[in-house]
Structure formats: C-alpha cells, structure tokens
Amino acid sequence: MGSGAPGAMGGGRMGRGMMGGQWNMPRYLDALRTRLAITPEQEGLWKEYADTVSGVGEQMQGLHQTMFEAMGTATWEERQQMMNQMFQARQQAARTVHEAAVTLVAGLTPEQKTQAETMLPGLAYRPGMMR
C-alpha cells in the first residue's frame, strides 16, 4: 500500500480505506489510528484531527458535485471561475488539514511522529508537493 494518503493507494490497488471502489473515510481514518497506535490519552487529539479531515473531505466532495452539475451548462468564463474557486478551495483544505496534523503530531510519541510524517494527510502530502 502507498503512503496512506487519499489518492495514494499504490498504483490503483484497493487500500484499507476503499470499499468496492468507493472511498470510505471513517474506515481509512480508523486504519490510520490503529497503525499509529493512538493511546487513550491521545484520543482527544486524534478526534480533533479525524473530525477535521472528515469535514474537509465532505466539503470537497460537495464542491466537486456542485461543479460537476454546473459544468454542462456553464459558459467558458463560468468554468474558468469554477476552476479557480476549486483551486483556492483545495489550497485552503490542504492548509486546514496540515494545521490539524501538526496539532496532532505535537501530542505523539517520537515513534508515532516518525510514522505520522509519512502517512497522515496533511503531513505526507503538502500543498504543491508532487509524488
């Protein structure tokens, strides 16, 4: 499996967060939580992080759906504006998830931090980073 970040599931193979080809955010986050061995003391930090990632994911899905529905009848200028809005929304989403990840990592053990830096959305992929 790849780094564990959405869209990085290892060359199209079905990863732990995938169910029948559909992305399953709760299952994906649960797998990350297990791999990081989040302790009861860290549960509050994990919940804040997971809630942020889930909320941003839902927001982006909604935006994608809205754009998809509007593209068929949109003018060239409207499409360009929608694409610019999507780009800005993605940048903001990446910043939000990154900030949540940094907050979570501050409460992890050194071993957990090492793992988190390579697999957590918000850390494994940074805005503008290509893999």
State the gist of this model.
With 131 residues, the chain is mainly α.
Describe the structure.
- A two-stranded antiparallel ribbon has the order 1-2.
- Helix 1 runs antiparallel to helix 2 and helix 2 runs antiparallel to helix 3.
- It has four helices and two strands, in the order E-E-H-H-H-H.
- With 131 residues, the chain is mainly alpha-helical.
- 18% of the residues are buried.
- It has one domain.
Question: What are the salient characteristics of this protein?
Answer:
two-stranded antiparallel ribbon; elongated; about 130 residues; disordered N terminus; mainly alpha
Instruction: Quote the distance from N terminus to C terminus.
Output: 14 Å
Q: Work out the radius of gyration.
A: 16 Å
Low-confidence stretches: 1-21
Main pleated-sheet profile:
2 strands, antiparallel
Number of helices in the DSSP assignment: 4
**How many distinct domains?**
1
Task: Note the beta-strand portion.
Answer: under 5%
